[in-house]
TrEMBL record:
<keyword id="KW-0215">Deoxyribonucleotide synthesis</keyword>
<dbReference type="InterPro" id="IPR000788">
    <property type="entry name" value="RNR_lg_C"/>
</dbReference>
<keyword id="KW-0067">ATP-binding</keyword>
<dbReference type="Pfam" id="PF02867">
    <property type="entry name" value="Ribonuc_red_lgC"/>
</dbReference>
<dbReference type="InterPro" id="IPR005144">
    <property type="entry name" value="ATP-cone_dom"/>
</dbReference>
<keyword id="KW-0560">Oxidoreductase</keyword>
<feature type="domain" description="ATP-cone">
    <location>
        <begin position="9"/>
        <end position="100"/>
    </location>
</feature>
<comment type="similarity">
    <text>Belongs to the ribonucleoside diphosphate reductase large chain family.</text>
</comment>
<dbReference type="GO" id="GO:0009263">
    <property type="term" value="P:deoxyribonucleotide biosynthetic process"/>
</dbReference>
<dbReference type="GO" id="GO:0005971">
    <property type="term" value="C:ribonucleoside-diphosphate reductase complex"/>
</dbReference>
<dbReference type="InterPro" id="IPR013509">
    <property type="entry name" value="RNR_lsu_N"/>
</dbReference>
<dbReference type="Pfam" id="PF00317">
    <property type="entry name" value="Ribonuc_red_lgN"/>
</dbReference>
<keyword id="KW-0021">Allosteric enzyme</keyword>
<dbReference type="GO" id="GO:0004748">
    <property type="term" value="F:ribonucleoside-diphosphate reductase activity, thioredoxin disulfide as acceptor"/>
</dbReference>
<comment type="subunit">
    <text>Heterodimer of a large and a small subunit.</text>
</comment>
<comment type="function">
    <text>Provides the precursors necessary for DNA synthesis. Catalyzes the biosynthesis of deoxyribonucleotides from the corresponding ribonucleotides.</text>
</comment>
<dbReference type="InterPro" id="IPR008926">
    <property type="entry name" value="RNR_R1-su_N"/>
</dbReference>
Amino acid sequence: MADQQKTGIHVVKRNGDHQEVKFDSITKRIQALCEGLDSQFVDPVPITQKVVEGFYNGISTSEIDSLAAETCAYMSQRHPDFSILAARIAVSNLHKNTVDSFSVTARALRDYKDKQGRPAALLSDEVCDFVLANAEKLDAAVVYKRDFDYDYFGFKTLEKSYLLRCDDKIVERPQHMIMRVACGIHAGDVDKAIETYDLMSRRLFTHATPTLFNAGTPKPQMSSCFLLTMKDDSIDGIYDTLKQCALISKCAGGIGVAISNVRAKGSYIRGTNGHSNGLVPMLRNFNETARYVDQGGGKRKGSFAMYLEPWHADVFDFLELRKNHGKEEQRARDLFYGLWTPDLFMQRVKDNADWTLFCPNQAYQAETGKGLMDLYGEEFEKLYLQLEKDGKGAKTVKAQSLWSRIMEAQMETGTPYMLYKDHANRKSNQKNLGTIHCSNLCTEIIEYTSPDEVAVCNLASIALSQFAPKDGGEYDFQELYRVTKVATLNLNKVIDRNYYPVEAAKRSNMRHRPVGLGVQGLADAFMIMRLPFESEPAKKLNEDIFETIYFAACEASCELAEKEGPYESYEGSPASKGQLQFDLWNVTPKSGRWDWAALKAKIAQHGLRNSLLVAPMPTASTAQILGNNESFEPYTQNLYVRRTLSGEFVTVNRHLLRDLIKQKLWTEEMRIQLIANNGSVLQLDIPSEMKELYKTVWEIKQRIVLDMAADRGAYIDQSQSLNIHMTDATTAKLSSMHFHGWQLGLKTGMYYLRTKAAADAIKFTVDVDKVKKAAVTTSGYAAAESAEKQAIEKLKAGENKYECVGCSA
């Protein structure tokens, strides 16, 4: 009888046959994918009814699947299981359109020809040969059912950007991509490739976006970050540096450039007997290059962060460059800006003292040729005071007037980033190489650069949520330790297998071998374990997690050094003298979980293979893929705007939604109230324990965010992408926050400043009873609908305008 429910519409099957659509066939297909989902909420029949509304004669079965997936995704605002079902339908559709053999897919990628019939291999010969030689073992290791573990929006992110295509048709499955990455890193060692595949496919960690894009391909540019110092303050030096930036940007690298050695406006030029135009016209050239050389042919604009020290005479102009108003020729809005701030400046601001600005052309030691840029700590201070005494300054201002302009720029544009030069140098394991001049695009990489060395970093992030017990047990530090060691070995391998866009980058990476391990899902781990972000147990777990990661990374690097020898520039580094990161912070590990004394003895004997190891980066897109909150950040909001072909809708933090459902509090009334409060739970009629647990970053004291950054900082030998969120920001509040971060000893005081007004709640009233009753005057629904539209617009306005995909690990 079921088969009599026909629609009168014909569908085109994958083999080209035409067949009349049967309502119940669609229902059965959806039902088959509902295993383990909450049947109270997820009913296939209403889904099918909704899907059929979008049918037309000649629709393909693939289009039906896409329509069903979109429909379920739209319904995920009611229950997170709809998003899982949507992903299952979309994945099942992809599986029907792709081959269930990794080795066959690898061969197809290697043998691909473009539309003109020319060879255009998407997989390197070496990796393809390795796959084919081990086809049986590798094919047997692939677990395709893990593709069904992604939620819909994570899967769509993969589909849109990460899975390789031939003639615009996706040929990889998510599991194929993961195995390609594993083989790209470990070609030659099938067991290591399978170990990496297994951990990544279980979503315990992920490599960074450039590694996921490019591993195994003929040009495997797997690095995320590149740091440069302006080669020389000359036409040759500036344009050589610009060309390096262009070549790196072409290969999708994010870039940080130190420019404090470029002379200021009005400075004398001996070669022409003229005067310099200063930083602004030069930076406009970098701006246009970033726009022109996008990351891989139309993918995304290039991304450059320019770092300046606040003693530079052009610093006031520098602070204006990203502002929305003003003369166009005085702006370069596509660049990002960071201040590389010495302690002396902070001290002068604190003391309300004068501050002298210098042109780097004048500000150097005659006997050594070293400038202010090349020194830090006492040596910097000594030269700065001497230059002031000798009357070499270009201009003297009140330190606080410059400080005010910095605050003003940050409140208007979110930048410049704030990094502390002395903390970054004093606590660096690379300080034996020389003074470090800048960070990277996302402020988590602190590495030495010079005119002939471009610093590079390869990244991966560990999914902290995966080690949190679902049943109230202990956090699994042992498994975190194991996964961290594998990720460290992988990143070390990437250094050797990487394609370097410029020779200076290869030279630097081979000499110092830095890597960057980060995290995602710290806030999810707290929520799973029911620890409010501001609670003492959460603070302790934060510290314990980073101690474990640092210990495991150091141990893995030491074991590598035992086999392969320490990195080339190891001698003279703090680690070679028995000092690890926490020693440079004057901190003693508290947990008692790891035997640091034994590890230090081992390092004294064998050294380390990598100069740097830990660098928690932003994880914008990879966190979306794995279904985690970004990095170590609290949840920014409990509501998110999602976009599907069915329209835009508001979806709720899945932990909160499951909690409300479990406690039988999830009703249409609750949904409307949550939207009315812009995602805040503080005004809702729910238990106070839930209010504490689901506070957003705007409701968490930023002092605690900074304190937790310093707690973990003792185990972070690079730095961390630390965003600051401030409601009703004022100069006084912002200044106090910066000083607190500086006094804590943070290397990165602030990545972006995110601000919003306190009166940001959506102003509308809904008669909830009208909405609930069936005898509805449509005004109740209309009000709710209009409220939802307002919520969507408000949330969209508050979305981050820029997320670094390159650093996303």
